[in-house]
Amino acid sequence: MNLLLEAISYSSVLALASVGLSLCIITTRVSNFAHADYVVVGAYAALLFKALSGLHPYLSLPLAALAGGVAALLSYLLVFEPLRGRSIVTLMIASMALDLIIRSALQLFADHVQSFLGIFARGFVFRDITVQLGGLKLELLAVAAPLTSLFLLALLYFLLFKTRIGIRMRAVAENAELAEVLGVNVERTLSFSWFVSGALAGAAGVFLPLRFSVSPDSGSFILLTLFAAVILGGLGSLTGTLVASCLVGFTETLLVYGLSGLGVSTALRPLFAFSVIILTLLLQPRGLAGLWAAERRGVLPWVWRRR
Amino acid sequence: MLLVENLSVGYGKMEVVHGVSFSLTRGKVLAVVGPNGSGKSTLLRGIFGTASVLGGRVMYDGRDVTRVPPHVKVSMGMAYLPQVRGVFEELTVRENLELALMSLPRDQGWERVEEVLELFPELKGLMGRRARTLSGGERQMLAIAMSMVRRPRLLMLDEPTATLAPKAASALVRKILELRSSYDLAVVLVEQNAKLALEVSDEALLMVSGEAKYLGSSGELLSNPHLAELYLGLSRTR
């Protein structure tokens, strides 16, 4: 039961962060290697909130989302907006440089927090709240993470499909030039998309220290898993990314549990995400979304066809 | 209303249109014709601001709009319909129309769409359908309807009939003329089908290798055997 709840909470956190990454890719075609850093920014915002207010980090969710959103917005305005229209390789390299810059900034921030507030800001974890549900005793994370994910992703759906800004975001993602000639302020719309994608990552960051120890460079450990979910889901598909996050989250949790049961080191964990990326790119480069599209057209690749 | 002076347009540093000038008043149609690759579409993109202006200027209603961003030009009453993909395929017809009126105040919103739907009754039954499921003619109707929602005073169309069958192309051009008369629009029509464009326009601009070879009455260009045959492939016996 605990394993199942752990898998659910991990998948939920993964879904929040990877859907944000997917949104970035859809709107600006940037495979942003700095995206996992926004998750860490959210975690540090939660740490600061806890240190200053003395309240539980769960309550810092809006602040963490705001911090992640602002970090992503600044990344767009300072780095990716000036590079708009450049090749995918240029954007990718820029995002790698940005990843290093954000990590360095987080190192400085951690130093300051440590010296001014006298708390551990490297390798920190949050203590969870234990709750009693019926006869079941469980950590609040198991309930809070999936509920928050569901709520925020439903909000994202509402934003994209039921609001004017959502129509603008989808239009700009499909054809920015046409949107501009129809009077849409493309810059503002893209800035907003980046803010939303960073806010989702920042919100995910609150849950991270409840499960892992967090340091300024923790982003590099999550990044591979986020990309595994986005690539398996099909680049540019939010629904695909959501489903893939659950698949990756569940499988990874079970695998780590199995490996540790066999006495194998869990340091091999990143190998799983790496294998998902390689296998997807080799067997089904368009991911789950490509598979659904092919099924709709009745042209499934022979390996997937039902007999 | 529109004054283009010595305009040079290009992509990056590569100049495609070299020093073109013309003017257009309300209620008139200017046809921009010429062989493939002569810079017709680039000229339009330069005027609207989606290609780099390398020299000259664009005046609209007495104001220099050369460096004004496209979304601001739209709010000033200029509308531009790109050559391909003039609609958002993944949005529904309703969403496409909603998008076109977004920068207007909310209280003016849907009434404008209803007004435009009276001009394009074909679209009324298609509101919930994604644009990618529409026929070529329906898509172009939708694209023009999207431009008209904002009640522009200048409409610039880049080969609107390019993907249409002859019958649908004629119907679309008739619709454009109808809009010109009803709204006293100035229309710049870039067309590959030179004969059709010259027959329905008042003035013509013939572009060859990025330069203006002729600017004047459409009728005169049609009856000029040298230019019409050499550059537009129109035979003398029309």
Automatic annotation (TrEMBL), chain A:
The keyword Cell membrane applies. Pfam families: BPD_transp_2. Keywords: Amino-acid transport, Cell membrane, Membrane, Transmembrane, Transmembrane helix, Transport. One of its GO terms (cellular component) is plasma membrane. InterPro entries: ABC_transp_permease, BCAA_transport_permease. It is found in: Cell membrane. Its main location: membrane. GO terms for biological process: amino acid transport. The keyword Transmembrane helix applies. It is a multi-pass membrane protein. GO terms for molecular function: transmembrane transporter activity. The chain crosses the membrane at residues 7-26, 58-79, 91-110, 140-160, 192-210, 222-250, 271-294. Belongs to the binding-protein-dependent transport system permease family. LivHM subfamily. This is Branched-chain amino acid ABC transporter permease.
